[in-house]
Specification:
The protein has one domain. It has four helices and five strands. The two termini are 21 Å apart.
Length: 134
């Protein structure tokens, strides 16, 4: 895992099969390809956001040209983040522009709460990530 990027996301080396799986999920309507992803993710080759919830959906951004061999597997770089809003307008105005003007980043504590509430409202399995917020 690489934490050298923005503090509101992380990068990791992933099996290229993950990109294929996310694309297949997009064909089933579970993810949507992000428009203009290269503006906010320089060097990215593709990006997909989960569309299950009204807020706090996971976004996978792939950098397929950035590779690294790990234990014999040629991996690709991937960024993972969760945005507050699914709607591109709300995301742009209430998150991207607001954060840009204030100098803030997406708050992982707020994302945690939004994701937990979205899951409860949708009746899906509890959101229980392998970390706690301090």
């Amino acid at each position: 895992m690489d934490r050298t990027g923005a503090a509101d996301r992380f990068s990791a080396w992933a099996d290229p099969a993950l990109l294929i799986q996310v694309k297949q999920s997009a064909l089933k309507g579970l993810f949507a390809r992000e428009a203009g992803f290269g503006v906010f993710h320089p060097g990215a080759t593709d990006s997909f956001k989960q569309v299950q919830f009204g807020e706090a959906n996971v976004q996978f951004t792939f950098h397929a040209n950035d590779t690294k061999e790990i234990e014999g597997l040629n991996c690709i770089k991937m960024e993972l983040d969760i945005d507050y809003f699914k709607d591109i307008g709300a995301h742009a105005i209430l998150e991207v522009i607001t954060n840009g003007l204030s100098g803030n980043l997406t708050d992982p504590r707020q994302v945690y709460v939004l994701r937990w509430m979205a899951g409860r409202n949708a009746g899906v399995a509890p959101f229980e990530p392998p970390y706690v917020l301090g």
